[in-house]
Structure formats: C-alpha cells, structure tokens
Structure to design on (94 residues):
C-alpha cells in the first residue's frame, strides 16, 4: 500500500509516495544523508548558493555511488575467477 510522506531537504519540503515501509525508510535515510552532506558543504563553502551546495552534494554522492559500483564490479569479477579456479581444481582432483 502506498504511503504518502513528507521529507525535508535543505529546508524544502517534498511530498512523496512510498510503495512500502522499506522504501519510506530509505527515503528518510537518504534525506538525512543529503541534509548532513549539505550542512557540511554549507560550513566548508560559506557564501555559496543553495543550488551550488546541492550540486556539490549531488556530485559527491554520485562519485561515491560510481566508486561503489566499480568496487562491486571488481568483486564480481574476482568471484568469477575464484569460481573458475575452484571448478578447475575440482576437475583436476577427481
């Protein structure tokens, strides 16, 4: 069942619909993470506009996501290599 929720990001309220309690929690956690990063950039870049600060937040979060995706891809490849090595080992020792 869809749940209507309101979250606040950088002082602005956004009305959203969450399809599940889990998604609602993710929205709230994401808003908290964005607000924390926004506050940090506000302190480290005084005088910047909200748009500038949100751009920095978006850039930072996207770099983090891409970095994590790259790490996941690397681990998947390592898993494939280990699986291939294991299969070879099992075939050689039968």
């Amino acid at each position: 069942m869809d749940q209507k929720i309101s979250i606040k990001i950088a002082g602005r309220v956004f009305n959203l619909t969450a399809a599940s309690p889990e998604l609602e929690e993710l929205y709230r956690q994401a808003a908290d993470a964005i607000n924390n990063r926004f506050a940090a950039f506000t302190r480290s870049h005084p005088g910047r506009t909200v748009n500038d600060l949100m751009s920095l937040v978006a850039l930072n979060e996207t770099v983090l996501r891409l970095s994590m995706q790259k790490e996941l891809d690397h681990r998947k490849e390592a898993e494939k290599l280990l699986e291939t090595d294991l299969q070879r080992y099992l075939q050689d020792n039968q």
